[in-house]
Design brief:
Blueprint: E1 9-19, E2 27-32, H1 45-49, E3 55-57, H2 58-67, E4 76-80, H3 88-100, E5 105-109, H4 115-121, E6 127-132, H5 137-144, H6 149-160, E7 165-171, H7 179-190, E8 198-202, H8 208-213, H9 228-241, E9 246-248
Parallel strand pairs: 2-4, 4-5, 5-6, 6-7, 7-8, 8-9
Antiparallel strand pairs: 1-2, 1-3
This protein binds iron/sulfur cluster (SF4).
Length: 249
C-alpha cells in the first residue's frame, strides 16, 4: 500500500471512527482544529477556536482507517472541523495519501479559504458537503463576522467544475428562515451551472455548554431552536421558488 514519508503535521482535534451522518456509508471523521469564521451558532466552538495542539501526520490517519477498513466498505473518510480547508497543505497531504489507497474522501466545509486550495484539492476529494451560512451579505456578516462574496464565488466555480457536492443550510428561526432570505438562497442555487441537492438542518443549542466552558459569550440566546415545522415551512417556501430540498431533522 502507498505510504507517505512527509514530516508535515496537522492539528487534528479528534477522530470519530464510526460516523453515519457525514457522507455516504459508515465513515471515519477527522475533526481538524481551527476555523476562520466566527459563526454565532457554532456547535463545535472547541474544535473551531480551542487551543488543542494535537499534531499528527497524514500517515496516522491512514493507519487509523486501516484498523477498521472492513467497516468502511461503502463509506470512507470525511474531513470536518472546524474548517478543514484552514489547513490546506495538510489536508492535501491526507487526501492524496487516502486516494492512493483507494479510500473515498469527503469534506464538510464552508469554503472559507483561498481558491488555490480548492483547485489543488479538487482531484482528491470525492464529495464536497458545503455549508451555506447565508446568501445575503449583511446576514452572513451578522452570523459569521465575515463576508461571503469569495465563498459564493468558490462554490460557483467548484460547481462549474462538476464537483460532486451537497449544500447544507441551517434553519435558525427569525434569522435564516425569512421569505426574503430563502428566496435569495433558492435563486442562488437554481442559478448555479449544475444542479445540486440542498439539505435543511435544524438550528439547535446543544453546543451552548461548550461556549460556556470556553468562557465565550453566546449571542443567540434570544433565538429558539428550529422545530420540524420550521423546516417544513422553509422547505415549502423554497419549493414556491422552484427549489426542492431535503429535511435532515
Ligand atoms: S464554519 Fe463551522 S466550525 Fe467554523 S465557526 Fe462556523 S459553524 Fe463553527
Amino acid at each position: 500500500m502507498p505510504t507517505s514519508n512527509s514530516n508535515l503535521t496537522g492539528r487534528v482535534h479528534s477522530i470519530e471512527p464510526f460516523g453515519t451522518v457525514d457522507g455516504p456509508g459508515i465513515r471515519m471523521v477527522c475533526f481538524f482544529q481551527g476555523c476562520p469564521l466566527n459563526c454565532k451558532f457554532c456547535h463545535n466552538p472547541d474544535v473551531a477556536w480551542g487551543k488543542s495542539q494535537n499534531q499528527i501526520k497524514a500517515e496516522k490517519i491512514l493507519t487509523a482507517y486501516n484498523k477498521n477498513r472492513h467497516f468502511y466498505r461503502t463509506g470512507g473518510v470525511t474531513f470536518s472541523g472546524g474548517e478543514p480547508l484552514f489547513q490546506g497543505e495538510f489536508l492535501l497531504e491526507c487526501v492524496k495519501l487516502l486516494k492512493a489507497n483507494g479510500v473515498h474522501t469527503a469534506i464538510d466545509t464552508s469554503l472559507s479559504c483561498g481558491y488555490r486550495w480548492i483547485e489543488k484539492l479538487m482531484p482528491y476529494i470525492d464529495l464536497w458537503m458545503i455549508s451555506i451560512k447565508a446568501v445575503s451579505p449583511d446576514l452572513h456578516r451578522q452570523l459569521t463576522n465575515h463576508d461571503n462574496g469569495a465563498i459564493l464565488n468558490h462554490l460557483t466555480k467548484l460547481n462549474a467544475n462538476k464537483a460532486d457536492m451537497r449544500l447544507r443550510y441551517v434553519i435558525i428561526p427569525r434569522l435564516t428562515n425569512t421569505r426574503q432570505e430563502l428566496t435569495k438562497l433558492a435563486y442562488f442555487i437554481m442559478n448555479l451551472p449544475n444542479s445540486v441537492p440542498l439539505e435543511l438542518l435544524a438550528y439547535h443549542t446543544m453546543g451552548v455548554k461548550k461556549w460556556q466552558e470556553l468562557s465565550l459569550p453566546y449571542q443567540l440566546n434570544d433565538y429558539p431552536q428550529a422545530e420540524k415545522s420550521d423546516l417544513e415551512h422553509a422547505e415549502s417556501l423554497l419549493l414556491e421558488c422552484g427549489l426542492k430540498s431535503t429535511i435532515l431533522y
